[in-house]
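Sharing a chain and its predicted structure for anyone who wants a worked example. Both blocks are below, sequence first, C-alpha cells second.
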Amino acid sequence: MRRSMLDKAFGSKYFSVLFNIFFFVVPLGATTCASMGGLSKGRAKTVWVSASIILALVGAVLAAIEKRHSKTQSRIAGNMHDANAAIIDSLEFIAERISQLLECWDMHSRVTVYAAVKRGGEVVLCPLARRSYNPDLSKEGRTFCRADEGMLSSLWRGEGRGMAKAVFPVDRDEREHWYVSQYHMDEDTVRGLTMYPISMFGVRLEYNREPVGALLFECDDQTRPARFDADFMDGYESNSAVRELVNVLQSEIYAVRTIIPGLIHHETYHSMPEVPVGMLPEKKS
C-alpha cells in the first residue's frame, strides 16, 4: 500500500523537527502579533491583527493535521503488528507440520526457520520461527547467527547440495568443546545456547535458485545420537508433502524479505540497518 505524500513527509525526521518548531513558533507569533495590534493604531493595527488571525488559523490547521497523523500512525502500527504476528504464525505452523511429517515432533527435537539478512556488509541468518513439542526448546535464543559459523556456514555455501548433518559427543563438556573448536563459536555464545544438540540436520532454503534462509532440525536425545541418519534425509527428499511445504516456506520468506527486521522481536536489533539479501557471501581465499 503506497503512502501519501503527507505520510512520507511526516515520516522524515527532519520534517518532524520542523513541525515541532512550527508548533512553538506559530502560537508565539500569533500572540506577538495580537499584542502588537493592541499597541498599534490605524492601518498598522489592522495588519497586526490580521497577521495574528492568520497565524492562529495556521496553528489550528497544523494541530488538526498532527492529530490526524498521530491516529493514522497508530492505526498503521497496529496493523503492522497484526500482520507481523500472522506471518510468524504461518511460518511456525509450516515448520511444525514439516516436523510432524518427518516424525521429528517430540520432547527432544526442535525446528528453526532462518532468514538471510545483510547487516553491516555481513550476511547473517536470523531465526524467524522456532517450534518444538517441548516448550523449553522453543525459547528464543540468539538474535542472529553468522553465516560463516557452525552448520549454517556449510548450508549457506551450498555444500552437500545445500543439505548437511552433524553428530556431536554425548558428553556435555565434550560437546561444548566441539562447538568451539570445530564450529568456531565463542565460549560466551555456547554458554547462551538454549539447546545443546547431539545431532542436527539442515537444508538451505532457496527461491529462484537464490538462497534466502535455512531450515534447521536439532535433537538432544542421548539415546539417539544418529537421529538424522540417511533414512531421515531420504524421507525429507522423497516426501512430496514435505517438499511442497518447504516450497511454500521459501516463497513466504522471499515475499516478506523487505520487512524481516520488523519481524524480529529484539530491542537491540530494531536499531540495526538490515537489508535482506539473496546472494552468496564471498568465499575466503
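Comments welcome. The first strand starts at residue 109 and ends at 119.
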